[in-house]
Amino acid sequence: MINIFLLGLPGAGKGTVSEQIVDKYHLTHISTGDMFREAMANETKVGLEAKSYIDKGDLVPDEVTAKLVEERLGQPDINEGYILDGFPRTIVQAELFEDIAKRMNKQLTNVISLEVKEETLIRRLSARFMCKKCGATYNKITKMPKVKETCDRCGSHDFYQREDDKPEVVQNRLKVNEKMNAPLKDFYQKKGLLTVVDGEQTPEEVFKNVDAVLSKKQ
């Protein structure tokens, strides 16, 4: 079984490589954002607990987020393995997750960090745009819709750029995220789980390197 945590700053290419990993290894992609939305929509016990904080505009406590991850890991589609995206974000969360994964016998096998220079990230993020209807993400440099001005996923013609993808905001986002990522890289390096992959390469080359790491685990 392969269980992966993907690390990387916004724009590093985590979404693209996640799709490629899922296609080849049939892992389940676990996004904390999707988990929150699903648990709240289904009104699970933990989902309602998380909603009570979100509705007040408060941050969801680490323990509640961890319970939500535990709930998700217990679902049957995780049996082939998973890719974790968006959690853990801090050392406290990493330690909480380690306890959960050990208890459920679903420990991480790999932590992969995609490393990309700041100027490349700024260029990539500033070129990113999204479908207003379904949220599909595109990029003027690397991933335009197959049919001009038409979303590949839903056929909509309505696109927009997120406020936090505008160049003046991007630099600050990167600094905040780097501050969060650095301790996590150290944490997993010490555990012998971390592999650094050069994210400056083409998506095909990035996946080739990631694939070389994962294929050793099979």
Automatic annotation (TrEMBL):
Alphabetical list of NCBIfam families matching this protein: adk, PRK00279.1-2, PRK00279.1-3
Which residues are noted in the entry as AMP-binding?
A: 32, 37, 58-60, 86-89, 93, 162, 173
What is this protein's function? Catalyzes the reversible transfer of the terminal phosphate group between ATP and AMP. Plays an important role in cellular energy homeostasis and in adenine nucleotide metabolism.
Q: Which GO terms describe its biological process?
A: AMP salvage
> Which Pfam families does the record match to this protein?
ADK, ADK_lid
List localization entries: Cytoplasm
Q: What is this protein called?
A: Adenylate kinase
Return the GO cellular component terms, semicolon-separated: cytoplasm
Q: Which UniProt keywords apply?
A: ATP-binding, Cytoplasm, Kinase, Metal-binding, Nucleotide biosynthesis, Nucleotide-binding, Transferase, Zinc
In this chain, the stretch annotated as NMP covers: 31-60
Q: Which residues bind Zn(2+)?
A: 131, 134, 151, 154
The cross-references to HAMAP family, in alphabetical order and at most eight, read: Adenylate_kinase_Adk
Q: Which InterPro entries match?
A: Adenyl_kin_sub, Adenylat/UMP-CMP_kin, Adenylat_kinase_CS, Adenylate_kinase_lid-dom, P-loop_NTPase
Q: What is known of its domains?
A: Consists of three domains, a large central CORE domain and two small peripheral domains, NMPbind and LID, which undergo movements during catalysis. The LID domain closes over the site of phosphoryl transfer upon ATP binding. Assembling and dissambling the active center during each catalytic cycle provides an effective means to prevent ATP hydrolysis. Some bacteria have evolved a zinc-coordinating structure that stabilizes the LID domain.
PROSITE patterns xref list: ADENYLATE_KINASE
Primary localization class, coarse: cytoplasm
GO molecular function terms attached to this record: AMP kinase activity; ATP binding; zinc ion binding
Q: What family does the entry list?
A: Belongs to the adenylate kinase family.
Please list the reactions this protein catalyses: AMP + ATP = 2 ADP
Q: In which pathway does it act?
A: Purine metabolism; AMP biosynthesis via salvage pathway; AMP from ADP: step 1/1
Question: Quaternary structure per UniProt?
Answer: Monomer.
At the top level, the lineage of the source is Bacteria
State which Enzyme Commission number(s) the record gives.
2.7.4.3
Q: Tell me which residues make up the Adenylate kinase active site lid domain.
A: 128-164
Q: Where does ATP bind?
A: 11-16, 128, 137-138, 201
